[in-house]
Amino acid sequence: MVVKEYICDPGRKSKVVIEDFSTQIKKDVTILLGFAGIGLIGPIIANTLIKQIPDIKEIGFITSEFLPPISVFYSGVLKHPFRVYYSPKFNIIIGICEVPFEISSAYNDLARTINNWALNEDVQAKQIVIFQGIPQAGVIDDFSVYYAAEAELVDYLEQYGIKKFDKGIIIGPESTILNETLSNKLQGYALFAPVYQIPTPEAAASIISILNEIYGLNINISQLMEEGKEIKQKMLELAEKAQEFSRKQLSEQGSKGDYPQYYR
């Protein structure tokens, strides 16, 4: 079996390993990267796409010395924690990283490796897209999608009704990957949605709806929406219990004031 490894100099702390060359990657491919961050929207989005795109197949993996000592498996089968998939039909590469990196010093090496591989003659990518959650307190009623992008992509993204942030920061490996695209010919952009501190499928569903429009996908998000409703109901129940507990505590203390609102 022919295997190719793509390693970035200097550093050599991470590498992209492609094991399946049975399908040639078309030029101007789009790379979607789902990292394990707050709300876990990256892995949720990537997993949903992988399950529903009919012609997608696993072609390799990305490894790094800075990945934590965690293994993942499905139905008893071990999998690389950072896997790479390709769909010829939609000309999309999906990278899914299901574990967080241990230290931030890994990010620059990883970003250079992924960008160099994306620009390699075997790939010749056009865009790299990352996803990130915006942590919110309390119950979330609006899962609007926002973007941050290179200047030439602004008009392109706004035609899909995505909102923009005037100012902000991106953290984690996603930030260094986008920073690398600013100094090469790749086009990079980020899609954001509000999330809880726990997995937030509704936020992932909102972003997938945008990806459906941009890339002509037909991903069903109904299950994610149902899961999101269940989470919201549980959050509401927790809010009611918190307020009930607060009222009880203040009543026992003889307070006549209003009880604090923990969820707004």
What does this structure look like?
The chain has 264 residues and is of the alpha/beta class. The chain has a single domain, classed as PAC-like subunit (Rossmann fold). It is built from six helices and twelve strands. It has helices spanning 41-52, 106-119, 154-158, 173-181, 201-215, 222-252; strands at 4-7, 14-18, 30-34, 57-64, 72-74, 77-79, 82-87, 92-97, 127-135, 146-149, 163-164, 187-195. It has a ten-stranded mixed sheet with strand order 1-2-4-7-8-3-9-12-10-11, with helices on both faces. The chain has a two-stranded antiparallel ribbon with strand order 5-6. A hairpin with a 2-residue loop joins β5 (72-74) and β6. 34% of the residues are buried. The model is unreliable at 255-264 (pLDDT under 50).
Q: Helices and strands in order, then pairings?
A:
Layout: E1 4-7, E2 14-18, E3 30-34, H1 41-52, E4 57-64, E5 72-74, E6 77-79, E7 82-87, E8 92-97, H2 106-119, E9 127-135, E10 146-149, H3 154-158, E11 163-164, H4 173-181, E12 187-195, H5 201-215, H6 222-252
Parallel strand pairs: 3-8, 3-9, 9-12, 10-11
Antiparallel strand pairs: 1-2, 2-4, 4-7, 5-6, 7-8, 10-12
Helix pairs in contact: 1-5, 2-4, 5-6
